[in-house]
Structure formats: structure tokens, C-alpha cells
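Bit of a strange request maybe. I'm writing a small parser for C-alpha cell strings and I need a real example to test against, not something I typed by hand. Could someone generate the C-alpha cells for this chain?
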Amino acid sequence: MSWIEIILFLASIIYLIATVFAKERQNSIVMLLSLAGFGFFVGHLLFDVPNWQLYPLYFFIAMNTTVTFITLLMKKNGRVPNDNKKKMVIIGTITIVISGILMAIFPVYDIPKPDGAFSVGTITFELTDPVRIEKYGEEAKTSDTLRRIRVQAWYPSDDVKGHRQEVWLQDGVLLSRSLAKEMKMPFFVLDHTKDILSNAYIEAPISQFKDSYPVIILSHGWTGFRNLHNDFAELLASHGFIVLGINHTYGAQMTVFADGFAAELDRGALPNRDVTPDFSNYANQLVLTYAGDVKLVLDTLDVLNDGQYSNILKNALDVTEVGLMGHSTGAGADVAVALSDSRIKALFCMDAWVEPLGAEVLSLGLSVPSVFLRSEQWKGGINDDYLMPLVKASNDARLFQINGTTHLDFTMSTMFSSLTGIVGFTGKLDREISANIQHDFVLDFFKDTLEHAATDPLSKLLERYTDVWEDKTKN
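Reply from user aminoacidic:
Good idea to test on real output. This should exercise your parser:
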């Protein structure tokens, strides 16, 4: 909550108290308080971002000011009838309480600042696959459209002065309202998130501290989107990595392209398992589509180094040190790529949905250092029947579980509402502790594998965090 919003609440409360206790000769003071509240209200509209949660309070301030002006015009002595006072107190109390509750349920959070030595720059660009035909969305039903994706890059910077701070949700209100629709909530309920600022600055120059930086490709899960993992991207960039976050078109909640085309989630891409006999075919195609997107980005690294799409990244990517990171379906796709692509040097997965890849493919095992973080919610599910053999068959793979977490704890879903834990979307573990665990595991793992700067850091983290344990069960 901004300082001017706090003042609005305080001014309204003080006005109500004055209305209740002011004597008749003090009516002019009450009216001055009303006008002062209106002044703050105007200042808020001019210099701050209005929030829908405060609409009841806005209504009260506007109505109260109107009544005050009418009273001043009609009553020379400035007296306010007692009946009007009572009505104002009742209406004011109700609107203040409602706005207070709404702000508590849907607060405007700040994204925690990354703790690395670098500032963070960001650019966004689009990639079109030269060979893959789009299989999802309405356009796929009418034409042989080539698949295209949206990619956001986060990178270390030394100078962000004069560069505009990027918003958290690049796809703005189109995305927030699509999410509200998905959750069967009023369309405007998540509008407040469109104005949350990230910690990245648009087109800031890349740091010249090193000639090139290790690259990490980041993939979201089914119904997710790239900005659900901004915290990881900004953290890694602030510590000297270039992160390329993919929006997997039609698997993402919303992908908005530069030409204005908005590709909404294609629900038909992954129908209900319980009523779909060939569900495994749908799941396999979806994960491999995500994997194709990852390979497209991999194939574009040399092009990015040549200065195409942006001169900012020219010659800045160390294509010999490339890692993959993903959540859920995105992590399953990362596994599919890492199983066969020698360009991958490290793999970090959160609740990796590997079931769609099948036991035969997974039995090949991974040959690169790999970490699998699992939520407590996913322990013992059908996915474990595929994940555990994969870990066993791999040369250097470790599986950790964070107790008190759900599948969504690996995303920034708590940014949307304080109710996520209460309704069971996120787990019982404190969100700050959960985030610290994830961030430390991700950062230390990639520093160890891509920068070769640490020795077995994850075992040290196990000693620090009692909410994490390593699953060494062998299937």
C-alpha cells in the first residue's frame, strides 16, 4: 500500500471520528476534514495508481465531498443535520472496512529485490520456428501457421540510469483478466497486478565485467507464463547469468505478440485425464511441443551472439555453458531436451512432469548434473513412478523435497492474493522461507555447474534448511 493510500484511509477514519464526537459549533472543522480528504483523493488519482480495491473508499470520499459542498451552499451556518451525520458514519464505516478487507485479500506486493552484485536489464523478442507447424489454437485449424514463441531475456547490467523499469506482467491486463477468468472470478479482480514493477530495466546495457555469461533457459508449466518465474530470472541475472524465459504459446495462460495477437491458453491441448482414454498422447505431444520451443531457443543462441534481435546481447552469451530450468510441464520438456542434446551442461527441475515421456525414454538416464526439487504435494503421485527411475538411471541426479509445499509454491502465485495459502493453493511453509530455499538451491547449483565456483553446495544447504530432505529412495 502506497503512502498516499495510507493517508486516504487515515483521513477518512479521522473524519468519521470527528463526525461522531464533534459538537455543533465544530461542524466547520468536520467539513474542512472532508475537503482535506478530497484533496488527498485528487492527489492519489493524479500521482498514484488507483486500485479497484479502494473503489468503495473512493465512493465514500466523493459522496461525502458532494454532501459537504451542498451543505455549504444551502446552509449559511454550515450546520449538518444529525440524520446526515449518522448516514455518513454508517456508509463511511462500511466502505472503509470493505476497502480494507479487499486490500488485505488482494494486496499490491513488491517483488523482492535480487541480492546479486549486478543490476538487471531486460529485452523481449519473438522467435518463429522455421519448420514446426502450430498444432494448437484456432489459427492451427485454418492454416499451416509456423509456431512462434515469445522470449524475455534478463541479463546483468552496471548502468540502468535513464532506463524505464519493466512491469512484472508484460502482457498486462490481457493476462490478468485471462487469469481471473480461469479462476472463475470477476474479470477485474487481478487488475492490480498489471502495475506491479519488476526489478529489471528495459534495454539497459549489459555489464562489461565479463566478456560473456552462462546462459539459462527457463520454461514455465501448463497454464503458467514466463513472468511467474521473474524472481528466479532476476536473481540469476543479478549474479551474472543470462536468462531466457520462454512463453510457451497456447500452453501459457496468455501470450501477447508484438503485432497485438493474443494467444490464449488452448484447453484442448491437455484435456481431463479422467475422461480422455488417450490422455497420454495429448500429454506427450504437449511436453514435446514445449521441448521443441526449448530447442528453438538453443538454436538461436548463436544468432543472438551475432547481434540479431538486439545488439545488447551481441557476443555476450557463453554458449559452452548452457543450463535448463523449468517447472512442471516446462521441466518435463527440459528433461526431454537434456536427454539427447549435448549442448546442455546442467538441469534444474521443479516438480518435473516426466510421466508423458514414458518409461522407455526415461530409462536412458541423464548424463549431466541434474537437480529435481519436489513439492510435498507431488510425493507419491503417479509422476514419482517415472521420476524415481529417471533419477536412479542418471549419472549425477539428486532429488530433494521441500516439506509443507504444493505444486504452485514453485511459482510467484502468492503475488495475486494473500488467500493462496488459506485456500490450499500454496502450502503451509512460510512463503519467504520457501522462496529462500528455492533461490539458494537454484543459484548455488548453477554457480557450481556453469561457473564451477562451488563444491557440493547443496549438501551445505541441506544442513541449513530443515524443511528440505534428500530422497534417496531407489525404485
